[in-house]
Design a protein that fits this description.
Largest sheet: 7 strands, antiparallel
Number of strands: 12
Order of helices and strands: EEEEEEEEEEEE
């Protein structure tokens, strides 16, 4: 009825080339591989004669060279590598109220942050639009340190219900 778990894993995304360049051939450069170390702990449980399921996990991701996009004010898009960390927590609850009615809910909390760079000494090499976590744009050098990851909501939640209404012809009719 209760399972505790913990894990450590290492992820890898191969390097690539910035294929988004369209202003000059110099903008086609190699984007380094992405590596992430992941630590996760949590539990999964079934309670009250399997009518309630409660699961939760806490996790930590340490990215080295996370592949990201930067859109320069002059409308040029570049692929870049950034270092950063992500910490989070997720919880999920499923309640089977009857053989016809089931409820579910979930909550996720994320804290993401790019590492800071030493942008006072940043140097641009060729068309590569970065030096560590310092980004070169038409507006100047930007230190992304302390900024959250894009596309990673700080909070997320969901509520749901499945209601079996009966048979309809050859199938079942459910309201979700």
């Amino acid at each position: 009825n209760l399972m505790l778990f913990g894990s450590f894993s290492k992820g890898y995304r191969g390097g690539t080339y910035n294929g988004l360049a369209f202003q000059s051939a110099a903008q086609v450069y190699f984007v380094e591989p992405e590596v992430v170390d992941v630590i996760e702990f949590g539990f999964k449980s079934r309670l009250f004669d399997d009518t309630v399921q409660l699961n939760a996990s806490a996790f930590y991701y340490d990215y080295e060279g996370q592949q990201n996009q930067v859109i320069d004010p002059n409308s040029t898009t570049f692929l870049i590598n950034l270092d950063g960390e992500m910490r989070g927590f997720e919880v999920e609850l499923v309640v089977v109220a009857s053989d016809r009615l089931r409820f579910n809910a979930g909550l996720g909390v994320l804290d993401t942050e790019f590492d800071g760079g030493n942008c006072g000494n940043a140097t641009q090499v060729g068309a590569l639009p970065q030096d560590g976590n310092c980004i070169f744009t038409a507006a100047g050098v930007i230190d992304v340190g302390g900024n959250p990851f894009p596309y990673a909501a700080q909070n997320s939640a969901n509520l749901g219900m499945d209601w079996y209404l009966g048979q309809l012809g050859q199938g079942d009719l459910k309201l979700h």
